[in-house]
Design a protein that fits this description.
elongated; mainly alpha; two-stranded antiparallel sheet; Helix Hairpins
Length: about 150
């Protein structure tokens, strides 16, 4: 037996196996043009931050979401001469949180370091072999006539 109940703004629908076997007759509702979070961008018309903006890349909802929101809000609403200068502690807290989840928030330095050792080893061995090659070639070549006359 399927049924529906309202929980706050959400409607919870329980269905049976038989309900799933029949094609749906649900009608899609068009987007609400008055929805304050729909297609608004980062800053809403009233000046608030739109935490649902895809431009934030999910940062506001991850494990460090509250720290991100505190830091970002502090910066956004900052009235200081140097914007955000009073927010250093909030950004430090966010950074410390992100360091606890390196698999979710890889640091740029980590990305660079992972590529650097093999690249630098290749460059070192290449430059060493180039130096050896040039030393061998200069020793093994016979002087030209111009070089012997000087």
């Amino acid at each position: 037996m399927s049924y529906c109940r309202q929980e706050g703004k959400d409607r919870v629908i329980f269905v049976t196996k038989e309900d799933h076997e029949t094609p749906s007759n649900a009608e899609l509702v068009a987007d609400d043009p008055t929805d304050p979070y729909e297609e608004q961008g980062l800053i809403l018309p009233n000046g608030d931050i739109n935490w649902n903006c895809p431009c934030l890349g999910g940062m506001a909802s991850g494990p460090c979401g509250s720290q991100f929101k505190e830091a970002f809000s502090c910066f956004h609403y900052s009235k200081e001469e140097v914007k955000g200068s009073e927010c250093i502690d909030h950004f430090r807290n966010m950074q410390e949180c992100m360091q606890r989840y390196p698999e979710l928030y890889p640091q740029e330095a980590d990305k660079d370091e992972s590529a650097t050792p093999s690249d630098s080893a290749a460059l070192t061995s290449e430059s060493d072999s180039t130096a050896v090659t040039s030393a061998v070639s200069s020793d093994s070549t016979s002087p030209t006539d111009d070089q012997t006359t000087s």
